[in-house]
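Render this sequence as a predicted structure.
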Amino acid sequence: MNWFTLSLAGWRQRPLRTGVTAAGVGLAVAAWFSLLSFQAGYRDGMKNELDRLGAHILVVPKGCPYDAASIALHGASWPCYLPAAYLDEVRAAPGVTTAAPAFMTALHEGTSTNTVYVGVDENFLRLRPAWQIRGRFPQATNELLLGAEAARRRHWQVGQTVPLPGLTNATGLVSGILGPTHGAEDDFIYLRLADAQHLFAHPRQLTHILVRLADPNALDRAVTHLRGCYAGMDMNIVPLAHLFHTIQSLVNSTRLLLGCVAAVALLVAAAGVGNTILMAVAERTREIGVMRALGASRADIFRLFWWETMQVCLAGGTGGLAFAFLASRLLENWLRARLPFAPVDALIRWEWWAAAAGLAGAALVGSIAGFLPAWRAARLSPVLAMRSTGGDA
């Protein structure tokens, strides 16, 4: 039996105490893993969503830019509208290569499902070069382009004339089905811009305009021009790159606070582990004396208790990672309800580097917390330890 196996048997003799100690380490590691995973998942998800728009600038009615970006990405009814005449001024801005107008609205279908309609013209395709359409983009009156999930859920096929969900006595011809994009637009129903304006009784009005520049480095110049033009007082010009950095800075500002909470949790776990191992040393004083009398060196005793500490911490860390992963969906749903801008991609996902960082933190806790108890055990005199009346023989 080697010292590693002996240490394993040692802490398994007290399962309740060991379990409570390991649970403390596990909770600290779970918090650390969730923090790291959320930071990476939120940043990547937000960047992917903004990239899906295919635009550099989002022109929307006056209001909160975060809400406007979220509506444009995830689909909802807009509280106010832009005059369609503003489109000409947007297209006249320096560096603009594509200005794609859109009219979006959402209708309740059943108790909890929304049907999102998006009216667009062919300029929209310039922002979505990666789209794969089975059939064709809507060209004639009442033609529809369905998102992949919308078509699958309703079992609609190209060429079918279908009732429009949420609308009475309105039908459309499915001219095309969009390939999966793995975004919110998989649930959208696209139609011609003029059809959407007529269908929802908002002629010559838009909800937003997606703008793409010839040179992304000229973003500030284009934004300045749009904000200073005649229509600039009635439009909110949202540079998506700036929006990304602004939202990311808001997340980063809370990262320090959350990191401090995770660090405190690790310190509390280390104190609990150290206290548990010190109690084990006090209870096993005679056992230590017997081992020293049988030839165990001080290094052997130190190694024994140090290994016990590491095993408890690594076991707790592994359990904490499993708990964090299993509870990630619940935590993600809680976060989505409180974030100003929540991407549809997973916010907390399995990241090997974050798991490795969590286990490294558990190992660090074990190394620090186990040093003093192991050193104290190694310093015990064999004779005095044998005479001790406490602990196990």
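Summary. The longest strand covers residues 96-109. The longest helix spans residues 240-283.
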